[in-house]
């Protein structure tokens, strides 16, 4: 079975003014689409065609660089579209809110540490909030299209439940070199209900 892109769960202009429609159009329609197409080409005729994208990522050390880059690209962008929402933002409540307070001290302290991870990633990559095996939360960052599921020393962290794309293609049209403004804007469009669902699933 070839991998396909799930439809965007909102219109391309729905995240404005935080992420502009043209960026969404190119990011989803060209960048993510290319990762999917290149991934399908890279695994054509191999056993990986029968695996989930999570299974491929968890065993990525067995695969080619093309599978690592494009498989990571597909997994990462699928998660990214899911955890964004118009009218998102606010402060997470319930078990997720408690876990954030426990791990980081407060929502504001979480926001600061996550922003540091996003700003500290030199060049292209991602910032992540991950669930560890004991159910606790940790922030990390990966280069290129790597992600915390990947079985690579220095990359593997936990199960990602929130991710921020800090490749220039994610923000350059609107923010140019001002990554800090893009990172600050991100917190207004986080779909915390979806992140809480992922948190609950990751703890099982
Ligand atoms: Mn991207």
Describe the structure.
By secondary structure, the protein is mainly alpha-helical. The chain is built from eight helices and three strands, in the order αααααβββααα. The chain has helices at 21-43, 53-58, 65-82, 94-104, 107-120, 172-175, 179-186, 192-203, and strands spanning 125-131, 137-143, 159-165. The protein has a three-stranded antiparallel beta sheet. Strand 1 (125-131) and strand 2 form a beta hairpin. The chain is globular and about 50 Å long. The model has no long low-confidence stretch (mean pLDDT 97). Bound molecules: manganese (III) ion. Residues 27, 31, 77, 165, 167, 169-170 line the site of manganese (III) ion.
The coarse silhouette is globular
Structural class: mainly alpha
Beta-strand portion reads 5-15%
Order of helices and strands: HHHHHEEEHHH
Mean pLDDT: 97
Q: Which distinct ligands sit in these coordinates? A: manganese (III) ion
Strand order of the largest sheet: 2-1-3
Number of strands: 3
Low-pLDDT residue spans: none
Number of helices: 8
Largest beta-sheet details: 3 strands, antiparallel
Radius of gyration: 16 Å
Helix content: 40-55%
Span between termini = 27 Å
Record the SSE blueprint:
Blueprint (H helix, E strand, L loop, with lengths): L20 H23 L9 H6 L6 H18 L11 H11 L2 H14 L4 E7 L5 E7 L15 E7 L6 H4 L3 H8 L5 H12 L1
Antiparallel strand pairs: 1-2, 1-3
Helix pairs in contact: 1-3, 4-5
Manganese (III) ion binds next to helix 1.
């Amino acid at each position: 079975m070839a991998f396909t892109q799930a439809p965007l769960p909102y219109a391309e202009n729905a995240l404005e003014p935080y992420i502009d429609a043209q960026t969404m159009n190119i990011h989803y329609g060209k960048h993510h689409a290319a990762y999917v197409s290149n991934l399908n080409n890279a695994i054509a005729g191999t056993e990986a065609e029968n695996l989930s994208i999570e299974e491929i990522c968890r065993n990525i050390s067995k695969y080619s660089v093309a599978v690592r880059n494009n498989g990571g690209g597909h997994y990462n962008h699928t998660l990214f579209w899911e955890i964004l929402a118009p009218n998102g933002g606010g402060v997470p409540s319930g078990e997720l809110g408690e876990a954030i307070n426990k791990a980081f001290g407060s929502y504001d302290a979480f926001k600061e540490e996550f922003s540091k991870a996003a700003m500290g990633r030199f060049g292209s990559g991602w910032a992540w909030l991950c669930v560890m095996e004991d159910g606790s939360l940790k922030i990390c960052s990966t280069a290129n299209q790597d992600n915390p599921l990947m079985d690579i020393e220095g990359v593997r962290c936990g199960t990602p439940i929130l991710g921020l794309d800090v490749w220039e293609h994610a923000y350059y049209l609107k923010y140019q070199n001002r990554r800090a403004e893009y990172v600050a804007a991100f917190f207004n469009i986080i779909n915390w209900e979806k992140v809480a669902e992922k948190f609950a699933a990751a703890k099982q």
